[in-house]
Fold this sequence. Notes:
single chain; mainly alpha; 3-stranded antiparallel sheet
Amino acid sequence: MTSYIEPLTQESTPSIIADKLRKAIGAGELKPGAQLGEADLARKLGVSRGPLREGMQRLTQEGLLVPIRNRGLFVIDMTVDEIRDMYLAREAIERTAARRVVAGDHEAAGEELLALVRKMSEAEGDPAAVGEIDIAFHELLVHLAASPRLTRIHKTLITETRMCIHALEITYSGAEARVDEHRHIAEAIRAGDHLQADDLLAAHMEDAITRLTH
């Protein structure tokens, strides 16, 4: 397993530290509910506590870390209510992104998305790989909207999605159904059918909630 908590090989800015910690949370290296020890993290990352605190503060502002008085900083726990709320926000961002993508070069965008769907289909039988391609599909969808703000907000939500998938991987199965859902979304975008893409994204998010909470 790749470790994200290791010495930095480039200038240790707070943004780089925040990105390292964000990836560690998403990958399950820093587990939900885990307490972050400054001394231990500073040693593992090879940085001083000043930039580390700034990096952790960024994740606190994003909602990935929560301060508990007189105890310290902890990774959030993704409860059922928080999973539903996270997908509510993801749905708003991705449906907005899809609308913008369809208004542009939707044929090229659809082809890019379908290329990932093909990779997802080829990866059936490897739940971890399917999960990563699933996430890459949604990251690409938002990226294609060319909105830095949507992309920035979406990054935090994708980290929370990864937390859910790692914690509940057994219940988040059914690769064949997931491949079909993504294919239909990509085809609707390629066809320039915003209403169909919108309906499919809404249904896809509801299906993900069901998979992760039952």
